[in-house]
Amino acid sequence: MPFFTYKGRDGRGQLVEGVLEGADSGTVAGQLFSNGVTPLEILPSAEPKPAGPGLLERLQRRGVTHTEVLLFSRQMHTLLKAGVPIMGALKGLEASTENKNFSQVIREIREGLDSGRELSVSLGRHPGVFNPFYVAMVRVGELTGTLEEVFLRLFHHMDFEKFMRDQVRAATRYPTFVVAAMVIAFIIINIFVIPAFAKVYAGFKAELPAITKLLIAFSDFMVGYWPLLLALVVALVVGFRLYIRTAAGRLAWDEIKMRIPVAGGIVLKATLARFARSFSLAIRSGVPAVQALTMVAQTVDNGHVARKIEAMREGVERGESVLRAAMASGVFTPLVLQMVAVGEETGALDDLMTEIADMYQREVEYDLKNLAAQIEPILVVALGAMVLVLALGVFLPIWDLGNAALGKK
Question: Which of 146, 254, 308, 364 could disulfide-link 303, Cβ–Cβ 3.0 to 4.6 Å?
Answer without folding.
Answer: 254
